[in-house]
Please model this.
Amino acid sequence: MANEETHTPKLTKEDVLRILKEENPQIDKNYTQYMLIIEYKRLNENTGIIKGELYKNDVIELRGSILIPNPIGDPWENLKPGESQFRGFTLDTKEESFGELIAGFFKRTLKEGKLQDFIPK
Model:
């Protein structure tokens, strides 16, 4: 028994989503809840990938990834090829998001042909 390797099970993406929802329940229907799930996956001994999914009220809004050659350090050191580790973040907003404000600014500027106020009056 002394030589047995102790292994803590890794959380799945579904585990992280469930925990985030339990720990940060949506405030009310007037709020938009964003959840960002980051996956660190070791593809082989020399390559890893970081994937991100941004959920808006339980629907994937954006996703992307970046390939990492020679991944070292946390979180890579405890991953075997084919294994993943997940991190999660939440954010609740009530008014227009920063991205929507920026998009509106550029749309108004292009439509009217002159620089607009950042926040419409």
Remarks:
- Residues 13-112 form one domain.
